[in-house]
Design goal:
By secondary structure, the protein is mostly helical. It has helices at 3-14, 23-54, 64-112, 116-132, 138-167, 169-186, 193-209, 215-268, 274-294, 299-325, 328-348, 354-371, 379-424, 431-447, 453-473, 478-494, 499-528, 535-564. α7 packs antiparallel against α8 (215-268) and α8 packs antiparallel against α9. 84% of the residues lie in helices and 0% in strands. The longest helix is centred in the middle third of the chain and has 54 residues, at 215-268. The chain is built from 18 helices and no strands.
Length: 568
């Protein structure tokens, strides 16, 4: 199919009057178009690879304009279809709302209308309106229709037996009141008094709203009801008696705490240092937290004792305020100490001993915090001067390391150039020459210095992929290949930014293999002791001995590898 045929066919479908009716065709066309693009892009990739193998330059076709043109038309259809669906959904939702309203109205007639003539009149209005309403959401159709049928059945049933049900009101009232009594009895197990009181009141109101019962049932039911109600009110009364006891205990605790606070405030207000006042403030706040944690006491006494407690806090903070008004001279001492710190910082700001000077300035910053506050008038001014000296050094340090970063960028370019040379390298027919060339690439890569941290993993993986590809193509004998590939692997690992970690991992894995082989050998040797001397046992013994010898050979080979790893 011509590529533009897709767009033409899609434009035809988009112009269809009923957007929903062609939804399937549009989706199928979109799938065919996407399959076509995938196949064409695949062909381009194959052509490009073939050109590369021939050493030719190949410019792949760009399918982006075609895809954009197709999806521009497709998006127009999507918007149009979306609008149709939204309109249809809105209409069906409104129809669903109207039908639910009619269901509620019919439900109300069934439950509340006692006049049969009025009930039938309302039913006819509902039925006529129901037939006029259009479609509702598909997933709700069965549910709504079933509910309508159920209510109609219930309506006609109720109309038929209404008079009969009325004759049974007295018995029904008895049943309802018996259920009330049952629920009241179950309230004895409720632990929350608040919930119990609410439920008790509700059930008593329901009891009063239920009509009369037959005379022969009334006396026993009434006695059972009042007996249960009285026991519940007794439970509520006992709870509040206990609660009053708890409130009194809280009051006693608060009285004891008030005495402690009073003694503490009397002693604390004689403090003569900022630190002493701050420590005392922290302790007073702890007293306040303990006060809140105790809980309420009896309402009247609770207000009185709280007033006394708050008065002690007010005395403390008034004395603290007066003390701070007298410490301006102390602020001057702090200011002098901070000026000395500033001079020390200025003496260091031109230093190029980045590590030591950084530590010294950090110690000065900690000393600055420990000296204390120099007062609102001087603190900010002194801090600005001190910070400027610190910033001067740290900005110079930052520039120094930025210059180092430029050197890392130079190394990055050098390593990327080596990777390009590896990728472009054509192996020689002489295997030994090819191996020597690959080792030379590895030595050159490892000789280049560090690269930026964010690039180190990507550069290493690109290098490893390029060098591994050449090694894998060398036509080596099995034993020679294993030796060469292991040596190449070690050289490659050395070029990784995580060389130490990767080489340690290599050692660990080889040791694990050795331990596993030794364990297998021990098991084989144990098994030899179980073989009896017989023709069949001799065959098994030879097989096990062969496995032992094979394991020993593998262990020797692994030990040789282990010795090749640096630092081993």
């Amino acid at each position: 199919m011509e590529k533009n045929t897709f767009i033409g066919e899609l434009e035809t479908l988009v112009q269809h009057e009923d957007a929903l009716s062609v939804s399937r065709e549009v989706n199928e066309l979109k799938t065919r178009f996407e399959d076509y693009i995938l196949e064409e892009e695949r062909k381009e990739q194959v052509a490009q690879l073939e050109a590369q193998e021939r050493g030719e330059t190949y410019e792949p076709k760009d399918f982006k304009p075609l895809k954009e043109a197709f999806y521009d038309v497709f998006n127009v259809y999507k918007e149009r279809r979306k609008g149709v669906i939204e309109s249809k959904n809105a209409e069906e939702s409104e129809n669903l709302r109207r039908k639910k309203f009619l269901l509620n109205k019919l439900q109300d007639v069934i439950q509340n209308e006692e006049n049969i003539g009025a009930a039938f009149g309302t039913y006819k209005e509902i039925h006529d309106e129901w037939k006029k309403i259009g479609n509702i959401p598909r997933e709700k159709r069965e549910e709504i229709q079933k509910e309508y049928s159920r209510l109609l059945e219930l309506f006609f049933y109720n109309m038929k037996i209404y008079r009969e049900l009325k004759d049974h009101d007295l018995k029904r009232n008895y049943q309802l009141k018996a259920e009330i009594v049952q629920q009241l009895e179950e309230l004895k197990n409720v632990t929350s008094i608040k919930d119990l009181e609410v439920a008790l009141k509700r059930l008593q109101n329901e009891w009063e709203e239920i009509g009369p019962v037959t005379n022969e049932d009334w006396e026993g039911l009434k006695n059972r009801y009042w007996e249960t109600v009285r026991s519940l009110y007794e439970k509520v009364t006992n709870y509040y008696d206990e609660r009053r006891t708890s409130l009194q205990e809280n009051l006693n605790k608060k009285k004891e705490l008030l005495q402690e606070v009073t003694a503490f405030v009397t002693e604390s207000i004689e403090a003569d240092s900022v630190k002493a006042w701050e420590d005392a403030t922290e302790k007073l706040l702890k007293f306040q937290e303990n006060w809140k944690a105790i809980g309420f006491g009896p309402r009247k006494e609770n207000e009185e004792i709280w007033t006394s407690f708050r008065a002690q806090s007010d005395i403390f903070f008034e004395k603290k305020k007066a003390f701070y008004a007298t410490i301006q001279d102390k602020y001057a001492v702090v200011a002098d100490a901070k000026r000395k710190i500033i001079e020390s910082a200025k003496a260091l700001k031109e230093s190029s001993e980045w590590k030591d000077t950084s530590e010294k300035l950090i110690r000065l910053q900690k000393e600055w915090k420990n000296v204390g506050h120099a007062g609102q008038k001087l603190e900010q001014k002194l801090w600005t001067e001190f910070r400027a000296a610190c910033d001067s050094f740290f900005n110079a340090r930052q520039k120094h390391f930025e210059d180092q970063d430029k050197a890392l960028e130079t190394n990055l370019l050098a390593k990327q150039e080596i990777i390009k040379n590896i990728e472009a390298y054509a192996p020689s027919e002489d295997k030994q020459q090819s191996l020597a060339d690959l080792r030379e690439f590895t030595n050159a890569f490892n000789a280049v210095g560090k690269v930026p941290m964010k690039e180190k993993d990507a550069v290493y993986h690109a290098y490893k992929s390029a060098i591994d590809q050449h090694y894998s193509k060398l036509k080596l004998e099995a034993g020679e290949k294993e030796k060469v590939m292991f040596e190449a692997r070690l050289e490659t690992l050395k070029g990784s930014p995580d060389a130490g970690k990767l080489l340690s991992k290599e050692r660990f894995e080889i040791r694990q293999q050795i331990d596993k082989l030794k364990s297998d050998m021990l098991q084989y040797e144990n098994n030899l002791g179980f073989f009896a001397k017989s023709k069949g046992a001799d065959a098994l013994r030879k097989e096990v001995e062969s496995k032992i010898n094979a394991s020993k050979a593998k262990i020797e080979a692994l030990i040789k590898k282990l010795k090749q790893i640096p630092n081993e």
